Amino acid sequence: MGEKELRRSLSVLPIGTVMKLTNLTARQIRYYEEQGLVLPKRNEGNRRMYSLNDIDRILEIKDYLSEGMNIADIQSVFAKREAKRKREQAALSKSISDDEARRLLHKEFLNLGGLAGNNNDPFNNRL
DNA sequence: TTTCTCACA
DNA sequence: TGTGAGGA
């Protein structure tokens, strides 16, 4: 996770700020949490603290609701998005592994050349 | 003052 | 989803 994403994930906004930013009532915001649509952190005093990502999430919920979707619909939308995120994350780590494998193979190639006393490694002067 | 949980003439 | 109680 990059620095920027980390900041967007920091839960620093109290519900009052979220109310102003989203134009929703505290009741509604808490209800969406009850339905598992948003998962704000809690501070020492049991107060809900929201991140910028939570704000985006809530605004998205608000839009979907105004478009006629119900809570269940929205839950499935987020569920599918999460599934996709996992798939892409898996693909990403696989590509990293492949890249790592390539480096190891190249390293082996260089070692083989050295063991055989081979002096015509084309990459010899570049690596 | 703000936010929390709980409950419903 | 609104609203009030009673507490932190």
Automatic annotation (TrEMBL):
It comes from the Bacteria. PANTHER family: HTH-TYPE TRANSCRIPTIONAL REGULATOR TNRA, REDOX-CYCLING DRUG-SENSING TRANSCRIPTIONAL ACTIVATOR SOXR. Pfam families: MerR_1. Residues 12-80 form the HTH merR-type domain. This is MerR family transcriptional regulator. SMART domains: HTH_MERR (SM00422). InterPro entries: DNA-bd_dom_put_sf (IPR009061), MerR-type_HTH_dom (IPR000551), MerR_fam (IPR047057). Keywords: DNA-binding, Repressor, Transcription, Transcription regulation. It comes from Nicoliella lavandulae.
